[in-house]
Write a structure and sequence with these properties.
The protein has about 700 residues and is α+β, with helices and mostly antiparallel strands. The protein has a domain of about 150 residues: Heat Shock Protein 90 (2-Layer Sandwich), CATH 3.30.565.10. About 70% of the residues lie in helices and about 5% in strands. A 5-stranded mixed β-sheet has the order 2-4-5-7-6, covered by helices on one side. Strand 4 and strand 5 form a beta hairpin. The longest helix has about 70 residues.
Amino acid sequence: MMKKSTLTTLFICVIVAMQTAISCSPAADNGAQLRRERLRNLDDSITVLAPSVLDSINSAIDNTQQMLAKKQANNTITTSDSLALQEYRMCLARYYWLSDHPEKADTIVQDIINFAYRQDGGYYDKHKECRSERLNSLLANAFQLKAARNHNFHREPKQTLQLYTESYRLLFRSDNKEALPKACANLADAYIQVNDIPGAAKWYRRALFLVDSLELPKKENITLYMGLAQIYLSLHDFRTAQIYYNETERYFDLMSPQMQAYHVNNLGNFYYYTKNYPKALDTFKRMERLLIKRGMTNKFDMYLCRINLADVYLNLGQLDEARHCLELCEPYFHKNGDATALYYCNTIHIGIAARQGNAAEVERVLRSEHLAHEMPYTMVNIRNQYMRQYYEQKGNYRQAYVNLQANINYDDSLEHNRSNMRSAEIMSRFTADTLKLHHDLALEHKNAMIQTANMKTTVAVSVAIMLLMLLVLWMMYMRKKQLQNQVSIMNLKLNNVRNRISPHFMFNVLNNKIVNSGKEEASELMELARLIRTNLDMSSQPYMYLNRELEFVEQYIRVERYLLGDDFDFSIDIAPDVDTAKIRIPAMFLQILTENAIVHGLKGLEGHKQLHICIRRDKDITIISVRDNGPGFNARRALKKGTGLGIISQTIAVTNEHNKHKMRFEITNREDKEGNVVGCEATLKVPDNITFKKPDLL
């Protein structure tokens, strides 16, 4: 018969074989999958501004650096190891970008870009892509964040477009194609910033296509619906824009805090451009409350909200509130060098001054202004409206007409863009790049599925054969173990009988003693003889019904009472819902617990002696407790082999091996309020459906 060690060795061999087979499949790269999942979870925590996310990122960086130091000392460091560190640093850069100190991200992002450029002997400089998909993904993320930094603060729009475009191209050759729709959305936003509305719409539509082609969750469309709403708002197609805003609002609870703020800000702009200023005010106030609730009071979104509130207050004629909002946000834009935002602040200053007829203030603002680059059409259009009011107040109707004509030209350009949009929408459905993209993605997906299926079939057949062999060996092992358990139970029962100090011999001696004793003494000896006879009957049984066990315990107590004296109190408390005739417990367990309480707890005790047995139910479990007021128990010898409690412990262990629901046993000292030991309590918990196997004689 096979030994346990042999079986263990075989089991290990099977596991190794399974792992070897699985490792042969690229589709089953668990390590890479876990890595991507870990990074994705970190990104999700960063997006929702989880309080502990910074600690998690720093901990991951520290652990990775320690691992790198060890591998470097052993000359076993790899590019993959270094990549892991840079990926966590990328997470740190994203955190800083969303924090109150976005400038802290700049150095980290540039370090990551330099790291990617150095890999594989400057491979990127020659081929404009990295050798590994993983490195392409890292570099794409770095370009995205660098572009977003320029984008938010209206810096270097051409460079922003280049960075976003390069990031999109790298993602196509990365292991993170799920990020492609977001890259498209960022590109679309950048095109809006350079007043290329049809170009922006093209990238939003491509993002929607990618979400469908890559079979991503439909919630990924939320950002794209936001963007399309912005497109149609820029074109003053308010009806279509509202459709997309309403569609976006349906998914509001699924958005991150930053996305929620972005959506509400855009919705406020919608009401502003439709000249529904009271509704615009309510919406920007909603944004302000949301940012305060999310702890985002010192972030870009809050200052954007305040500058928009300033313009709304201006149009509502609440000039003091408008000035107050400007005072709150203008220093932030000066600090970050946001020329477009400062142009907007100056525009609102001009509007306030024009409302008050303060021509000197308007001229002061215009003289102090130094435009670094061309402003977006929307900003210029708002400026022209306020300047027209200013020129009309001065009586300069010629210049007022010029501003009016500029707005008319702006409206003409919107109509031109609308026409381009309609043409682009038709042509984009049949463009070669989208058709090729769809074909490549479908083919890649199909090949991966075929490869995965073949590998899974091979692994499954191999594992099935190994598991069949293992099953046969396991059955043989369990049969042997079952026989060993039966022998163990039998030995425990025999030990139990021997612990009763040779009851057969005692029974013969007692019979002779009873004949030659007085009436009272003979009665005591008869109780003892009945006790021994019951002991002999029960010791051969694996279990006993609780009522029989209680009768035996009462017999035992009657014998022991003669030795304990008159100051001994004994009681049994049985709950009303306990049917002792139907409950099975291991034979003689209750007697052993009672005997231990008397022998080790009450005998030799001065004063009043108490022994109490309590039986109650807890759902489908019978709970039996034996409590005394003795000096407590000695933990070192309590479960010693060969003692009553040792027999209980071993018997429970053997019985539990073949039962789903387990018996439980515990023994504790009882203490008073001062912490003094005032007795001991042993508790046995027996499930209703537990089975007891009667040992065979071998």
